[in-house]
Specification:
The structure is a single chain. By secondary structure, the chain is of the alpha/beta class. It has two domains: about 170 residues, Phosphoglycerate kinase, N-terminal domain (Rossmann fold, 3-Layer(aba) Sandwich); about 200 residues, Phosphoglycerate kinase, N-terminal domain (Rossmann fold), CATH 3.40.50.1260. The protein is about 35% helix and about 15% strand. The chain has 14 helices and 17 strands. The strands form four sheets. Strands 5-6-4-1-7-8 form a six-stranded parallel beta sheet, sandwiched between helices. It has a six-stranded parallel beta sheet with strand order 11-10-9-15-16-17, sandwiched between helices. α7 packs parallel to α9 and α8 crosses α9. The mean pLDDT is about 95.
């Protein structure tokens, strides 16, 4: 896997230099207030290291999806303010709708070694950012005199944007930050060089989202466990009645192929043996709901599966027990509902109880593990949903690829 031996912040000397750091400050906001600052705290080790080494640290990030250029509600001002509370140095927010404007240039010109400037949301530049515009990439690099670029935003590493990839064409030195290093070490090694037995658990709604992941992991792992909404497409591929459960009808043949592929390769492919069913999807999602548990081949035509059943939870927990490496991406059911979170909780508990290296692949599975209180029991929780999926597919991520090798 490319990117397992990249120059890191430990390999460079930034004293007196200007350093542009691509962080992931894409934090959830409600009425201008940050509701979860995990992404900011996750970036602190890299920021603090560069500050302590006497670099002039310029941070850039995107936030949300502003549609028509700058939108006040997507400003990085709240993130900059929160960062100011978490670090022991001066933090200046450069409010420029163009990201690199007079405010940014002035703030950078006036900063002392060990101080921080936070730029405005890179997505305010629209296609200049998302289409990897050379002009914007050069503006970002020029702001730090083309000296140093540090990539520490794993959640954006699967996108070739101006602030994640293009900028590296105009700087002398590149490195990955600690957060990136950790992601590369955990996810990269899990897939390329796992301590066996290696168990992969895939959940979530759609088979379509995970086609290449399923394919890649069947080749790499010893046991592949399928749960969540996508399990019903696999059950239908086995000829079972799945009622009104979520089914990817166009992917039924694909699921048949994967079941065959696993059998031929001597890999275990575990599917639900029972399922938790209800008349309809809960509305709202956390509303009280009446459920029953039935065998996986006994789903009534007018009911839908919304979580794995108790026997399945026990089967999956047993499969994890002897594992040495476990990668989990995607919940086992509608975990936002307390009644339908049992399968996800059971899997999280089984990972918490094992001494295996446990890696949670971003997105909903990370949200589930954190909200259910299991975060401190996992070896690694990825900060990137889409990025961790592409990594598990075996893809080269542009935001890693552009960083210099050691």
């Amino acid at each position: 896997m490319a990117g397992l031996n990249k120059v890191s912040v430990d390999d460079i000397n930034v004293k007196g230099k200007k350093v542009l750091v691509r962080v992931d400050f894409n934090v959830p906001l409600k009425d201008g207030v940050i509701t979860n600052d995990n992404r900011i705290t996750a970036a602190l080790p890299t920021i603090n290291k560069l500050v302590a080494d006497g670099g002039k640290v310029v941070l850039c990030s995107h936030l949300g999806k502003p549609k028509n250029g700058p939108e006040a509600k997507f400003s990085l001002a709240p993130a900059a303010a929160r960062l100011g509370e978490l670090v022991k140095t001066k933090v200046t927010f450069a409010a420029d709708d163009t990201v690199v404007g007079d405010n940014a240039k002035k703030a950078v010109a006036e900063m002392k070694d060990g101080e921080i400037v936070v730029l405005e949301n890179t997505r305010f530049r629209g296609a200049d950012e998302t289409k990897n515009g050379e002009g914007f990439a050069k503006e970002l690099a020029d702001l730090v005199d083309g000296q140093v670029f540090v990539m520490d935003a794993f959640g954006s590493a699967h996108r070739a944007h101006a602030s994640t990839a293009g900028v590296t064409n105009f700087v002398k030195e590149t490195a990955v930050g600690y957060l990136m290093q950790k992601e590369i070490n955990f996810l990269g090694n899990a897939v390329e060089n796992p301590v066996r037995p290696f168990v992969a658990i895939l959940g979530g709604a759609k088979v379509a989202d995970k086609l290449n992941v399923i394919n890649n992991l069947i080749e790499k792992c010893d046991t592949l466990i399928i749960g969540g909404g996508m399990a019903y497409t696999f059950l239908k591929a086995k000829g079972y009645e799945v009622g009104t459960s979520l089914v990817d009808n166009e992917k039924i043949d694909y699921c048949k192929d994967m079941i065959e592929k696993a059998a031929k390769a001597g890999k275990k492919l575990l599917l639900p043996v029972d399922t938790t069913i209800a008349k309809a999807f809960p509305d709202p999602i956390d509303a009280p709901i009446d459920v029953t548990v039935v065998d996986a081949d006994k789903i009534p035509a007018d009911q839908m599966g919304l979580d794995i059943g108790t026997k399945t939870a026990a089967l999956y927990a047993e499969a994890v027990k002897s594992a040495k490496t476990v990668v989990w991406n995607g919940p086992m059911g509608v975990f936002e509902n307390p009644v339908l979170a049992k399968g996800t909780i059971a899997v999280a508990q089984s990972l918490a109880d094992t001494d295996a290296t446990t890696i949670i692949g971003g997105g909903d599975s990370a949200a589930a593990v954190i909200s259910l209180g299991f975060a401190d029991k996992m070896s690694h929780i990825s900060t990137g949903g889409g990025a961790s999926l592409e990594y598990l597919e075996g893809k080269v991520l542009p935001g890693i690829d552009v960083i210099a090798d050691k």
